[in-house]
Each structure stands twice: as C-alpha cells, then as structure tokens.
Specification:
Layout lengths: L1 H11 L11 H11 L4 H14 L3 H6 L2 H8 L6 H17 L7 H5 L6 H12 L8 H10 L9 H14 L5 H14 L18 H4 L16 E12 L2 E6 L11 E2 L2 E4 L5 H5 L11 E2 L4 E6 L3 E11 L11 E4 L10 H11 L4 E2 L2 E2 L3
Parallel strand pairs: 1-7
Antiparallel strand pairs: 1-2, 1-4, 2-3, 2-8, 5-7, 6-7, 9-10
Helix pairs in contact: 1-11, 2-3, 2-8, 8-11, 9-11
The chain binds iron/sulfur cluster.
Length: 357
C-alpha cells in the first residue's frame, strides 16, 4: 500500500512552489495558508507572502498591520496573527533559526499536531504522520471506519492508524502522497473509484459505503448577524474604523463604520441615527447594497450605504480617515473589499480623474 501511494504521487503530484523547497519556514507558511484555503487561491498568497517575508526574521520584524494586509482576503485572520507571534517566538527563543524537533515546532504559537507533523516530516523527514481532512477521508474509506472523525475517539483512532501506516524511511513523501491522493482521487464527492489504484483493497468500495464515509457527528451552529455599514466619504477621503481586539471575528482589522443590530437598518432609521448627526449635512444614497457573507460559524447579512459629507474633519474622531489611494495599506475583510471594489471605488472621482480600479 505504501509503495502504491508514493509511486502514484511521483507520477501524479501537482507542481506547487512549496514542494520545491525543504525550508521549514516556507513549508510552515504554505501549510498554514492551505489549512482553510484551496490550493489555487493559496498559491498567489504564498508567493507574495514569502517574497515580502522571505525568512522568519523578516516576518518577526514586520508590524501586525502589514502581516494582516498581506493576508487580506484569505480569511481566518487568527492564522496570520499566530504566524506573526510564532515568528517572534523563533527569534526570541531559537535565535531566528527555525527549530528542528517536533516538540519545539509543536510549542510554537498556532502550531497544532497536524502542522508540526507536516513541517517536521516534509522538512526533516521526521517520522510523524499527518492527519488532515484528506487523510481522514482516505483512511475511513480504505478501512470502512465509521467512527466519527470529529469525535475524540475518532481523532485518536485515525491518528494511531496513520502513524502505524507511516513509512518511517520516507515520512515526508508518504504524508504528502496520502494527502495528495485524498485531494485528487479519493475526493469528498464522486471519487473516481473505477480508476482508483486502491480499489482492490478498499473496504468502503467493497461494502458500497463510499458515499457514507467519513462520518461526522456534529453540525456546526451558525450564528446570524446583521451589519449595516456606512461608507462615509468626502472627495478623496473615506472613514475607516478599527475592529477591537475583543471581537470574535476580524479583530484588529479595519472596516467601514458599522451599526450592528438585530436587523438591517432602513435609510430612515439610518438618517435618525446619532452617528449621522456629527457631520451635519449628509447626502445619503437611499439604495443600499446588500450582501450575505458566510464564515465558518457566522452568517453575516450586510448592508452598505454610501454617504457623502462636505468634509471629513467633523467626523475624523470617529475613526481613521484614509485617502482612497492608501486603502490597500489597511487590512480589510473580504466583505468590505467586495463592496468597495464593485460598488464604490469604480464610481468615485479621485483627484478629479475617474480612476479605473
Ligand atoms: Fe477512495 Fe474509491 Fe479509491 Fe476507495 S476506491 S480509496 S473510496 S477513490
């Protein structure tokens, strides 16, 4: 079975930039980016990230705002904050040299069992098996295991099995082969079992259980939120607000002024809101833009109003005034850039010229 996976990998693996290196720093960055991001989307981010921060010291020295701005659009921003904090740990504890043992790597901020095993096996060929979503799926089907993969028992069982199957001589290769096999062949929906090299030893195929595996026990509870955003601008300037460090989502990032309520505000409600008393005369575009934005545990119903005011000074203590050209320096959630890119910036005159965004 081991030979089949690695042979298959040699012939079918995708050429990806992080597979060209044994640098633990680059492998770590790629693993963190790919945790909740598809390969095709993550590739550009990876290349830009390692170009701007080519080693752990350059990442440690950057400001959090700059790291978040590089991460903008990838979501799950705690990943970027943890990368930054871990880079500082490597500098403080290991003198800027990426640690070489599993225990030291696992001790870094934001690095769990999976990432520590991936970095150590791929960079140093240490014998630690990875168990990610692909591995859970492949193993549950190959051995027809019905233990829920999100249960404590399931996690133990699959980790133990993956470790027993690991090719200790070629741990990095074996791990990458198994994950790639899950990503390309034994996919969640409609796996190509007819042409699968594992078909003859796959218990799920034999028992016709493929569509039922892997088993999950919990359904994620989704909370619904209602965000009314105020896109307040004057000439070439726009008002932003920083989200506080206490927020559950997008902490320390920037957004447009927000009114959170149990519903989306109408233009009449908005005009009587205290926030709009400050700038005096306001010109409110009464037709808002609505979006639904889905995060892992949140459904955000968002509404954006464009509001032009005569000058920004009267309202500047309510946030940060940015010129439109400097907006890209602020880490903004994807929800905000979607609105700005499609419904605001293309229609705004910048410095007397219509800018083509
Ligand atoms: Fe996955 Fe189907 Fe291959 Fe079994 S036969 S390992 S279910 S692709």
């Amino acid at each position: 079975m081991r030979t089949s996976w690695t042979e298959w990998y040699g012939q079918n693996r995708r050429d990806l930039p992080w597979r060209e290196t044994k640098d633990p720093y680059c492998i770590w960055i790629s693993e963190v980016i790919l945790q909740q991001t598809r390969v095709i989307q993550g590739m550009d981010y990876y290349l830009r990230f390692v170009e701007r921060f080519p080693d752990v010291c350059s990442l440690a020295e950057a400001s959090e705002q700059e790291v978040l701005a590089m991460w903008q659009g990838l979501g799950y921003y705690s990943r970027a904050r943890n990368l930054h904090a871990a880079a500082k740990q490597v500098v403080a504890i290991h003198g800027g040299v990426f640690p070489t043992t599993y225990a030291e790597v696992r001790a870094l901020k934001g690095i769990g069992d999976y990432t520590a095993a991936a970095v150590c096996s791929i960079a140093y060929n240490l014998p630690h098996a990875v168990v990610d979503g692909n591995v859970y799926r492949v193993l549950s089907r190959l051995f027809a295991i019905e233990t829920p993969i999100d249960s404590t028992q399931g996690k133990k069982e699959f980790q133990k099995m993956a470790q027993e199957l690991l090719d200790h001589e070629n741990a990095g290769l074996h791990n990458q082969a198994l994950m790639e096999f899950g990503a390309l062949v034994c996919v969640p929906v409609n796996p190509d079992c007819q042409h699968c090299i594992m078909q003859h030893q796959c218990r799920a195929f034999e028992l016709q259980l493929v569509t039922q595996l892997p088993v999950k026990s919990k359904k994620t509870a989704v909370k619904e939120l209602f965000y009314t955003y105020l896109c307040i601008y004057s000439g070439n300037s726009i008002l932003l607000q920083a989200r506080s460090a206490d927020n559950n989502i997008w902490k320390n990032m920037y957004e447009l002024p927000l009114i959170e309520a149990d519903h989306l505000l109408s233009s009449e409600e908005l005009l009587s809101h205290s926030f709009l008393k400050k700038p005096g005369k306001v010109t409110l575009n009464p037709t808002p833009v609505d979006y639904t934005h889905i995060l892992s545990h949140r459904k955000i119903n968002a509404r954006f109003y464009k509001i032009e005011i005569p000058e920004m000074e009267s309202i500047s203590d309510s946030g940060v005034v940015s010129s439109l050209e400097r907006l890209s320096e602020y880490p903004l959630p994807r929800l905000i850039t979607r609105f700005l890119d499609h419904h605001f910036l293309p229609f705004i005159q910048i410095s007397g010229n219509k800018k083509n965004w």
